[in-house]
């Protein structure tokens, strides 16, 4: 069963269902903090890899200076797809690949009620794969659920 911070408890079943639908190792909701990306929800086979509240240093602080996938999504405000980080010079050696063996990534920015980037929703997997139009739409629909929750939550 997916795990989450209290804000996202109502989405735990959705997270597990999405991980099964996409056939990926992990579905995450990540929050952007000034110096870190923080896990807010985690589901899929690797849910225990990303404990709630765990933080990854942003590239300006990381020992190897490699950006986190989600950090790039937050900084650009745009989706990111990495088919296989091991084969892409920009992404080879990133934290998710080295520490957890997750070299495939698809992530979308999540915005709060003010339109500011809160963080990301993303799918990670241990092998290269493409995402069909339907799979991309499913992750985007999940993003909209996350944004709807943020819009209703007190600031």
CATH class: Alpha Beta
Tally of DSSP helical segments: 4
Integer count of domains? 1
Strand content: 25-35%
- Any guess at the CATH architecture? 2-Layer Sandwich
The gyration radius over C-alpha positions equals 14 Å
Poorly predicted spans: none
Cα distance spanning the termini: 28 Å
Largest sheet: 7 strands, antiparallel
What fold name stands as the CATH topology?
A: Beta-Lactamase
How are the SSEs placed, and which strands pair?
Elements: E1 3-4, H1 12-22, E2 26-32, E3 36-43, E4 55-57, H2 69-76, E5 80-82, H3 95-100, E6 104-111, E7 117-125, H4 133-152
Antiparallel strand pairs: 1-3, 2-3, 2-7, 3-4, 5-6, 6-7
Helix pairs in contact: 1-4
Q: How does this model look, in words?
A:
The chain is α+β, with helices and mostly antiparallel strands and 155 residues long. It has a single domain, classed as GAF domain (Beta-Lactamase, 2-Layer Sandwich), CATH 3.30.450.40. Helices cover 29% and strands 26% of the residues. The protein contains 4 helices and 7 strands; from the N terminus they run E-H-E-E-E-H-E-H-E-E-H. It has helices at 12-22, 69-76, 95-100, 133-152; strands at 3-4, 26-32, 36-43, 55-57, 80-82, 104-111, 117-125. Strands 1, 2, 3, 4, 5, 6 and 7 form a 7-stranded antiparallel beta sheet that branches. Strand 6 and strand 7 form a beta hairpin. Helix 1 runs antiparallel to helix 4 (133-152). The longest helix has 20 residues, at 133-152. The protein starts with a strand and ends with a helix. The mean pLDDT is 91.
């Amino acid at each position: 069963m997916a795990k989450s911070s209290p804000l996202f408890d109502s989405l735990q079943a959705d997270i597990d269902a999405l991980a099964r639908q996409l056939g990926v190792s992990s579905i995450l909701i990540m929050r952007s903090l000034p110096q870190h990306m923080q896990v807010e929800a985690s589901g899929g086979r690797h849910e225990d890899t990303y404990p709630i509240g765990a933080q990854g240093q942003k590239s300006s602080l990381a020992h190897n200076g490699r950006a986190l996938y989600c950090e790039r999504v937050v900084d650009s405000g745009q989706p990111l797809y990495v088919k296989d980080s091991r084969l892409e010079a920009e992404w080879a050696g990133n934290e998710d690949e080295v520490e957890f063996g997750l070299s495939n990534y698809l992530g979308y920015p999540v915005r709060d009620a003010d339109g500011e980037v809160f963080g990301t929703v993303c799918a990670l997997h241990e092998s290269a794969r493409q995402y069909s139009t339907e799979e991309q739409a499913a992750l985007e629909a999940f993003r909209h659920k996350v944004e709807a929750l943020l819009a209703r939550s007190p600031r």
